[in-house]
Amino acid sequence: MKKLGILLLTCLVLSGCTAVRIDTKDIDNTVNVILSKKNTLYNHVGKGYKYYVPRGVTYIDTNEFNEKLYSNGNYYYLYVDAVSYFYKKDIDYQVNKDAYYAKKFNIRDKTAYLEINKSEKNNKYFIEFMYNYAKIETLVDKGEINHAIMNASYILSTVKFNSKVIRLMLNENYFTNKEETYDVFTSKKKENDTDDFLQYSDKDNENKEKDKKKD
Fold first, then answer.
1. pLDDT per position as a tens digit, 31-79
2. Cystine design at 60: which of 39, 49, 68, 210 (Cβ 3.0–4.6 Å)?
């Protein structure tokens, strides 16, 4: 028992996270437990925000306020809406009763929603998870859903904004020159929107296979 206790303590220190007992088979419990904790950890800084990339997740690339991450064969796309944060825009989400899973949360005075839809093209599951003016999208196998939600929960729970930096960018018209805007609050219920993500994800998988062949 003593050796087991030492082993658990060592794992806790190496992970850099506070110990929380989570039943990963229960999506509601995973989301509520992780998002309810006041987590101040961070190891990655973006434009006007910072967040924590958990163990097992790798940062890949940044495109403006969009970040690309990778874990266990799956890509995660993080979208940060700094403008909506600055102006405290309300979230407008209607629960999709036709989804595989859909729920709206209110945690730490912040609204969140999680929606999961099955893709008819490849039998994978498209996850949209929004919390605190940030959103994660990923496409995973059914067996990876709980793991993906746990990773997304840790990332979204640690997003912290720098109001001074965002205000400076607003004053410099940083956002007004963008040709495309992304509404972080809009769920991709339409099949065409989901297809766009699937094509983007498939392209990443093709590139990954090419890299493997080169290796």
1. 999 999 888 889 999 888 999 999 999 999 988 778 999 999 999 999 9
2. 68
- Beta-bridged to residue 42, according to DSSP, are none
Q: Count of alpha carbons within 13 Å of 178, Cβ hemisphere only?
A: 14
Q: Which residues are CB-contacts of 150 (< 8 A; sequence separation ≥ 6)?
A: 22, 24, 30, 34
What one-character-per-residue DSSP string does 73-139 give?
TEEEEEEE-HHHHHTTPPP-----TTSSEEEEEEETTEEEEEEEEE-TTTS-EEEEEEETTEEEEEE
Asked if 132 contacts 51 with a C-beta cutoff of 8 angstroms, the reply is: no
DSSP, collapsed to helix, strand or coil, labels residue 56 as coil
Distance between CA 90 and CA 4 in Å, rounded? 47
Judge contact between 67 and 46, C-beta under 8 A.
yes
Distance CA 113, CA 62 (A): 24
